[in-house]
Amino acid sequence: MAGARGAGGAAAATGARPGKRPGGPEAAPEPEESSLAGAPAPSLQEGSDSGLSESEESVFSGLEDSGSDSSEDDPAEEEEEVSSDEGHGGPEKTAGQQAATPSPSTEVARAQGCEEYAVDSSDEEDIRNTVGNVPLEWYDNFPHVGYDLDGRRIYKPLRTRDELDQFLDKMDNPDYWRTVQDRMTGHDVRLTDEQVALVRRLQRGQFGDVSFDPYEPAVDFFSGDLMIHPVTNRPADKRSFIPSLVEKEKVSRMVHAIKMGWIQPRRPREHSPSFYDLWAQEDPDAVLGRHKMHVPAPKLALPGHAESYNPPPEYLPSEEERLAWEQQEPGERKLNFLPRKFPSLRAVPAYGRFIQERFERCLDLYLCPRQRKMRVNVDPEDLIPKLPQPRDLQPFPTCQALVYKGHSDLIRCLSVSPEGQWLASGSDDGSVRLWEVATARCMRTVPVGGRGRRGLSAAPEPSPGGPAGGGRHGSAAECLCRPRGARRAACPLAGGLRGGAAGGPAAAHLPREGPVTQVIWHGRGDYMAVVLAAAGHTQVLIHQLSRRRSQSPFRRSHGQVQRVAFHPVRPFLLVASQRSVRVYHLLRQELTKKLRPNCKWVSSLAVHPAGDNIICGSYDSKLVWFDLDLSCEPYRVLRHHRKALRAVAFHTRYPLFASGSDDGSVIVCHGMVYNDLLQNPLLVPVKVLRGHTLTRDLGVLDVAFHPTQPW
After folding, report:
1. Could you give the CA distance from residue 442 to residue 166 in angstroms, rounded to a whole number?
2. Which spans of this chain does UniProt mark as WD repeats (predicted)?
């Protein structure tokens, strides 16, 4: 713009200056000529500005001035004025010539005008969109978002990027976090450091201006000290000491209204309490009509014959009854007075407890509940689950049939042969006895030596020929086998063999490190698991009879092992520690499931014949039922015993399970497991068997079911 002004000034400087305005400052043309480098200066004979009127010149001057913001353009404006004055004194041209011959200053002004909008730094939000305050939601269904200064549409940018492109842009573009979308144009705008700092200050609740100090010291312009000179020396207004005519008119109107009685003076209200009968009959229009749950007042009992001044003789108390009434507490007495007999009504004295009874009556009215509480009438019998009768769940053990006598000390464990003909028992007297189940006759006594806790288990041999039993005593495990014919039979186990006499049992001896606490056989009879009371990962050992080898299946210990059990169907081994039961897959050699009994100390373990449910007994008098297909938490916890549980067992054929406790009782329960997976097991206690005597605070130590009979 300065160059355009300089061109006008140079053209005006070549001729005379008769039309110069009075009082205008003179400007040197040299700086303006240097600003138009390479532009030919028009001569006076061309008449570039001589044909323009004063109003037309002001139009171009306005375009030139709009692009200039500095004070250095004043000399150029002076030259422009001089050029305009000289043009008025020259020959006039026609309108067609003016339109056909544009002036150089006009072309420069137009060129500078285009650059002006390109470098505009105004405070508007976006100068390209001129929709004003029109809501941008109106353009949602249109391809454009507004109009520019020339009236052309501003089309929305094509956004074909999906979420994956946005994520890649977020990872690759370091300025992604400071890029926002301009709603006026739809384009992405990168925020500058100053704008980001402003946003952060506003998010922290600070002021937008950095230089603003909210804690700057306050300037006390006025003080309480008496000053000689006033703060302002402005003279008082005239209305401050002349009565107001408007107020005079308002006062006169109010006086007239008071005289006419239109305005009454305010009288003090009398705060008199309002009383109403709290227990009156309910009326929708009365005060009590608001109380929808109104409770009527409790009524006094009507007086009887005992309160008469001349009661019948049977209501008068005797001397003993009067003394007994006086010795009773006031709350225990039937009547709060003693009936008396008077000859006439005039002889009745004043009632001494009249004030006390009135006071108690007022308390009854005052403390009576005003709200009726709706109680749910539930029959307690409905809360008890509907269980079948025990007589409908027979057969199950009901009475004592046989007693097997022969041991001289505590019997620690029992084991029944798979066909149910033989019963083996281990005792603290150091012997293992073989009984005939049907006759309770002791068929064989095998001394194992030593004292302490011993046990055994029985399972069928791989080939038919009779029962085989495994025993434990001290720190060794033994396998007792029935001889076949006249030959001496020995169990093929490494670790020492003990031969038996002809017709007697043969034993295989396995010395171990630590006392043996349990021996359990696999259902096929080829594997035997032994639990040792030792620390470390060798607490559980598995022996295979056919291959004459033993192995420790675990590499590390998860606590003291209490019981182990083989799964009847799957290759699972269940290991019960003090606080949990772990199920291991023997083929995959991995942990399949961990059950949480939620009891202090697990004492016993039993697996259902189907293999989907197990029960655990604990020393804190709990019997826990687990459904392996349902959850790792207990399905049901039974607390029928009063003392610690020592043993639990399932029946192999009937839906029965039993638990023995130190309280000397055996509880037999009906446990039906359905084939339908959507139906939960049915657990019903059916019988409590008593009769065991407690010895050294120990009751029932082991429980075993007959394999075929409900015994």
Report:
1. 86
2. 404-445
Q: Following DSSP, what letter does each residue of 349-391 receive, concatenated?
A: ---TTHHHHHHHHHHHHHHS-SSPPP-----HHHHS-----GG
Helix, strand, or coil (residue 246)? helix
171 membership: H or E segment, kind and range: helix 163-172
**Pair 617, 623: CB distance under 8 Å:** yes
Residues 237, 240, 243, 248, CA torsion sign: positive
Phi first, then psi: give them for residue 492, nearest 5 degrees.
-75, 75
Residue whose C-alpha is closest to residue 481's, from 453, 498, 565, 411: 498
User: How far apart, in whole angstroms, are the C-alpha atoms of residue 372 and residue 94?
Assistant: 106
Integer Cα distance of 528 and 547 in angstroms: 12
How far is the C-alpha of 555 from the C-alpha of 552, rounded, in Å?
A: 8
Find out whether 615 and 640 touch, Cβ atoms under 8 Å.
Answer: no
Distance CA(189)–CA(181), nearest Å, equals 6
Sign of CA dihedral 208, 214, 219, 225: positive
Residues 6+ apart with CB under 8 A from 420: 437, 706, 707, 708, 709
**Alpha carbons 524 and 53: distance in angstroms, whole number:** 124
Q: Are 353 and 337 in contact (CB under 8 A)?
A: yes
Peptide bond into 395 cis (omega under 30): yes
**pLDDT one-digit tens code per residue, 65-117:** 433 344 444 444 444 443 444 444 443 333 334 333 444 444 433 444 445 44
**Cβ pair 527, 566 in contact under 8 A:** yes
- Give me the sheet containing 441-447, strands edge to edge: 411-416, 422-427, 431-436, 441-447
By three-state DSSP, how is residue 392 classified?
helix
What predicted TM-score, i.e. pTM, was given to this entire model?
A: 0.46
Rounded-to-integer distance, Cα 410 and Cα 452, Å: 10
Radius of gyration of the chain (CA): 57
List 682's β-bridge partners, or say none: 672
Q: Residue 216, Cβ neighbours under 10 Å: how many?
A: 7
- 10-residue mean pLDDT series, the chain (711 residues): 38 38 40 37 39 40 39 42 40 38 41 46 57 86 88 84 88 91 85 93 90 85 77 83 91 94 85 68 54 66 89 92 90 87 91 87 77 73 81 88 89 88 88 90 83 46 45 49 36 32 45 73 84 83 87 85 91 91 91 90 92 92 91 91 92 93 92 87 91 88 92 91
